[in-house]
Amino acid sequence: MSEQKTWKQRGYYLLLWIVALIFFAPVFWIFLAAFKTAGDLISPEFKFFFTPTLDNIRNIFQTPNFWSYFGMSFILSIGAVLIALVVSFLAAYSFSRYKPTGTNFIMFLLLSVRMVPASAVVVPVFLMYSAVGALKTLPGMLLFYAMFCIPFSLWILKGFLDGVSLRFDETALVNGGSRMHVITKVVLPQVKPGLVAAAIFNLIFVWNEFLFNYILGGNGSTMIPVLLATGVKQGGMTDWSFIASLSFIYVLPPIIMIYIFQKYLLVGMTFGTVRGEV
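The structure corresponding to this sequence follows.
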């Protein structure tokens, strides 16, 4: 490898690191601020070196309803995504293998649900939930988030299933396997990266969702973003310690999850876009 090419690669990687650090800077500030005292936090001069404190984290743990909201974030996120993945995988298999008339148009209509701004549909959804008695209930919020997760999951999984050869299905059926055996034992293991990618993207969506949870949710179905929005003002002033420490705690689970499943996530973001049998 020539010296000129080596320097170009180094410059390219250096540029990538600079861009990554710029985007990570706000997150890094939140992490530091979570362990600063109130005086250090509101100081006009940024203090990189300071005496850390755990008082902010302790205060968050002692906040009323914190643990119930935190647990509800897990319940709604994981529950809605699991429901969405089951429905999406079966629907994607049907679209990929049976190819009903108007498949492309149906797929576009399903994805268009995610294109509509949340503020444009919050009133109709509120009226519908009020009419059926699902307002401020855990099942209502669970099904609502599952409904929003299904279109995106369906698109990802159909791309994966289109890349799995139909010969796998035919071979299993010829050898006496049932259709359910084909779906669960033959096809499902081959689209595992797509399942993980769809799960992570939708988990992040539900985990961070605020508007619908604030309007449709109740005492038994409220998540941390609502607590963050409603508890930001303390004594008429913005409580930056509360914001920083709660954000630090709340962002850790997605970061850990993405770190653990990053291999599947990278494959899922690229493989499903490639057409061709495997």
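The domain at 65-271 is CATH 1.10.3720.10 (MetI-like fold).
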